[in-house]
TrEMBL record:
The lineage of its organism: Bacteria, Bacillati, Actinomycetota, Actinomycetes, Kitasatosporales. Residues 31-283 form the Aminoglycoside phosphotransferase domain. Keywords: Kinase, Transferase. InterPro entries: AGP_Transferase, Aminoglycoside_PTrfase, Kinase-like_dom_sf. It holds the Pfam family APH. This is Predicted kinase, aminoglycoside phosphotransferase (APT) family. One of its GO terms (molecular function) is kinase activity.
Length: 334
């Protein structure tokens, strides 16, 4: 499924709802790289650059947790600002899907290029320095506390007082999506559900709901500056945030690399900013559980996204053995 588009007139209508008159708009340029929301860079006549994000129209196929995703994104950016973590600034947010008007999010433009794009030109010393900086930023995010565990829009389940039932609701939802869409999984859903349930005792150790981005793969980490002197300029696409275990962020952070819980540079920054850097067996079980959840999302979302061909094959080849290995880690107690 191609990312949907929004015409110039509709873009102007959304901007007007945000208090930006059409005569102030100098340009509207569709942005690439996303697989769900439509994104537009908006240039104003005074030189200000904004980003407009618009989810698919009502009734479009999606996973259960994707209902009112912009609630989480706006909350992530507002929360990041309270602890000095660079991220877009919310200009205007209307995320409710029950308001009778199309939801959207208008935010400031963040300078830089993605770590994914810049990584090929990065020397080892700069990479370690940036991983240490990133570790410190992520640890600061994890100091933000929420009102309960789960997704803030509460469309999967109400916020819970305990993490274990909240996480169970999240994994049950994606497995229900797999059944509804007929998604291919490397193991029967019942076997996956039973294996995940084996980690309940480890989940019970999580006492406070922390801010979790859960999509911090290199494409969502922006860097700015000249090669050798780059810095993290922003953490973007916070729409998949939830209140949960800080360790959950290690799943996406390590998606395309070696596990960052074993990376000395990242842990140096994470620990210096107050993050916990000791991982006992229960922590290792939780890390495996969060990787299972991420792999399940990747396997299931390809159906409503309409993914075909080489990318579909890559998703299955990449996630299936990793999901099986993570489930084995849960079963083995870490």
């Amino acid at each position: 499924m191609a990312v949907h588009t929004v015409g110039a007139e509709a873009v102007d209508g959304l901007l007007a709802r945000a208090g930006t008159a059409a005569e102030r708009v100098a340009s509207r340029t569709a942005m690439t790289g996303g697989s769900y929301n439509a994104l537009y860079e908006v240039g104003l006549t005074d030189g200000t650059r904004l980003v407009l994000k618009v989810p698919p129209p009502a009734g479009s196929p999606r996973l259960r947790y994707e209902a009112e995703l912009l609630c989480g994104e706006a909350l992530f950016y507002e929360s990041a600002a309270t602890v000095g973590v660079p991220a877009p600034r919310v200009v205007h947010a209307e995320w409710s899907e029950d308001a009778g008007a199309a939801p959207f999010l208008l935010m400031s433009h963040t300078p830089g290029v993605s770590w994914q794009e810049a990584g090929g030109s990065m020397a080892g010393g700069e990479r370690d320095r940036l991983r240490e900086e990133l570790g410190g930023l992520v640890a600061r995010l994890h100091t933000v506390r929420g009102p309960g565990f789960g997704y803030p829009a509460q469309r999967v389940a109400p916020l819970a007082e305990r993490w274990a039932p909240a996480f169970e609701a999240m994994t049950d939802a994606v497995l229900a999506d797999a059944a509804a869409f007929g998604s291919w999984l490397p193991l029967p859903a019942g076997a996956i559900r039973s294996a995940l349930a084996g980690g309940a005792a480890a989940l019970a150790e999580v006492a406070e709901p922390a801010l979790v981005h859960f999509d911090l793969w290199p494409g969502n980490i922006l860097l700015d500056g000249a090669p050798g002197a780059r810095a993290v300029s922003g953490l973007i696409d916070g729409e998949r945030m939830f209140w949960g275990d800080p360790l959950a962020d290690f799943a996406s952070l390590s998606l395309l690399s070696a596990p960052l819980e074993d990376d000395p540079a990242f842990l140096a920054g994470y620990g210096a900013a107050g993050g916990r850097t000791a991982f006992d067996d229960a922590a290792r079980v939780r890390l495996a559980l969060y990787r299972c959840y991420l792999y399940l999302i990747m396997l299931v979302e390809v159906v409503p996204r309409g993914t075909r061909g080489e990318h579909l094959a890559w998703v299955r080849d990449f996630t299936a053995p990793r999901l099986t290995a993570a489930l084995d880690t849960v079963a083995g107690g870490g």
